[in-house]
Amino acid sequence: MVINPTYLAQTSRSSTNWQAARRRVLKSYRAWLRAVRPSALSPSSIKWPTRMLIVFPLGGTQAPEIQQMYSLNMPVSRIRTKVRSEFEKHRYVNQLDVVDVLLFQSHSEFQETLNYWKQLAHVMKYFTAEENPRARLPKDFISGFLEGRN
Amino acid sequence: MSLFRPRSSLKLYKAATSFPTAVAPATSRCISQITSWWSKPGSESDFADRIQSTEDKSSLVSQESTPDPFATHQPDYSARIDHGTSTFSPVPKRVMDGSEPEENVAAAVLSGAPVDLQARQVRIYRPAKTATQSGTWHSHHWRMDWDILQKGHRWENPLMGWQSTGDSLQGTHLNFKTKEDAILFAQKQGYEYFVQEPNERRIVPKAYANNFLHEPKPLKHIKTK
């Protein structure tokens, strides 16, 4: 019996060199930006090899819309900022294997989000720093001490 | 959910090595020395050079051999926050971001584990032999244990009096076959770790005949009557 792969499934692959990794990252980033489109949030953990230039796609809206799917109350720009910040988090990774795994994780997040396998809670995990007032670190030693933190 | 998000993370920070000294008592813990990322523990001669003894020669103070650009011993209050950060979270010194030298796999970046784990200190040790028994089987492996949190460690549940905790790793430990395995794991995950060397049992060989050996000087202790 033939097993049909799910929507957005992708075979495992690895990057042969940094240029190939860069292309894959750009492709992943573009896919995220296009999927975000008017609406909420797009959690993305796309990774960004070192010394990469950022190329923004010009327009182009695709079918799946993350914001409408998850009914997020935030503008598209905020989601795209979050996508970008998740990419920037891994900008300085200097191991190609790690970049490959990050690309895999990015794509798996992409698939899970667009297939509506996630729920609002999973999507909002990326926004805890802004939404949850208790998810923060103290700004210096004294305020941490007065709060009684570890 | 993705299947590729194991629970590892963080950056290793301190490497503790043991330097047996003649003045140290047999039951003392070994002195930890902070070394940099890529410097290997030096030989005994390097150790002698780095020692700065105090005036009364009673303690040993050693310096870092090479200044490590990644080593900051101050908490980083601007470290990134993830969904596991809470009011109990300690402040990390450095969060692994993959830009470290390539000796270690940057597993902390990939694991998806909370960033809090990179803030907590980890102890690598060999569990002591049970004092009430002679068997040593359970003290052959190496164990990794997390230091307790000051604040969310344990409190009494107001309803039933049970012990509640805000520490997800309370009572958790990992076992390794060798010390090097444990150290590599801590380095890979970006934990701040220190190694506690075990107290090896010192068995003194004794012979009954030594009680009757001749000594030219007056005996300090008369063993036979």
Task: Please provide a written account of the structure.
The complex is a heterodimer of chains A (150) and B (225). Chain A has helices spanning 18-36, 66-70, 76-89, 96-114, 120-124, 128-131, 141-147. Chain A has 150 residues and is mainly α. Chain B has 225 residues and is α+β, with helices and mostly antiparallel strands. Chain B is built from 3 helices and 8 strands. Chain B has helices at residues 44-50, 107-111, 179-189, and strands at 51-53, 60-62, 121-125, 142-146, 155-156, 163-164, 173-176, 192-195. The N and C termini of chain B lie far apart (80 Å). Classes of the chains: A mainly alpha (150), B alpha+beta (225). The A-B interface holds A 89-90, 92-95, 97-98, 101-102, 104-105, 108-109, 112, 125-126, 128-129, 134-141, 144, 147-150 and B 1-2, 4-5, 75, 77-83, 85-91, 97-99, 102, 105-106, 109-110, 112, 149-152. Chain A: This is NADH-ubiquinone oxidoreductase 14.8 kDa subunit. Chain A: InterPro entries: Complex1_LYR_NDUFA6_LYRM6, NADH_Ub_cplx-1_asu_su-6. Chain A: It is a peripheral membrane protein.
